[in-house]
């Protein structure tokens, strides 16, 4: 019981850390490829951040709707 809960928590933490690292690395690469400090790099950076925020928001809304049984 307790050991399996700790194992799942550790696995979730590792997975989230790896995904966050990959996301930051991909964003940095996209900004670097578009010319660091340029207007295009700023636009790419902003677009990626807004897209990520919207994705997290809509996933949260989906989970809320599923939990409340609205669908």
Instruction: Identify the overall geometry.
Output: flat
How many beta strands in the DSSP annotation? 0
SSE string: HH
Low-confidence stretches: none
> What proportion of the residues is helical, as a percent range?
over 70%
Model description:
With 71 residues, the chain is mainly α. The chain has 2 helices and no strands. It has helices at 2-33, 39-68. Helix 1 runs antiparallel to helix 2. The longest helix is centred in the N-terminal third of the chain and has 32 residues, at 2-33. It is flat. The two termini are 33 Å apart.
List the helices and strands and how they pair.
Blueprint: H1 2-33, H2 39-68
Helix pairs in contact: 1-2
What brief labels describe this structure?
71 residues; mainly alpha; 2 helices; 87% helix; 0% strand; flat
What's the gist of this structure?
The protein is an all-alpha fold. 87% of the residues lie in helices and 0% in strands.
């Amino acid at each position: 019981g307790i050991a399996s809960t700790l194992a799942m928590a550790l696995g979730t933490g590792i997975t989230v850390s790896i995904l966050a690292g990959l996301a930051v690395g991909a964003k940095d690469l996209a900004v670097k490829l578009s010319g660091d400090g340029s207007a295009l790099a700023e636009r790419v950076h902003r677009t990626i951040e807004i897209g990520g925020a919207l994705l997290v928001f809509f996933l949260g809304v989906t989970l809320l709707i599923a939990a409340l049984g609205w669908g």
